[in-house]
Task: structure prediction
Amino acid sequence: MQAGQAEAGLPVESLDFIYLPSADVARDLAFYRNVLGGEIVWAIEAFGARVAEVRLAADSPHLLLADHLSDQAPVLVHRVADLERSIAELRERGLEVEAEFDIPPGPAAELRTPGGQRLAIYEATRPEVYERFPGRVDFDIPSAE
Result:
């Protein structure tokens, strides 16, 4: 191993979701659809929050606009095979987990890097839940930006 090279990393399977903070999810969806040519996959309003997926490219992580995120930094959500084991490994390395929570496909944990980037890891214990969302639109989206 060369100097400065990290030991074996966390076994991340993939970058599945990018949560993008949004002050106005409907307005932002209109922009992604009308200006960028994106496809609105779903738009859900529940528990006092709006979250929606927009697709810009077929082979990319899910882009999720969310109005309940606490700051303006996006959250990169990576899938791991075993969330508890991954959290334990991170804690052994001295990293504090900022929050543990659930997303529709499974339990998750948010981490923040020293540079302020927001990362999360999750375990897909309920992948079938996410399959029920496409086509669901709970709120009006402006037709023009």
In short: Confidence is low (pLDDT under 50) at residues 1-6. The first strand starts at residue 12 and ends at 21. The helical segments are 25-34, 83-92, 127-130. The two ends are 52 Å apart (CA to CA).
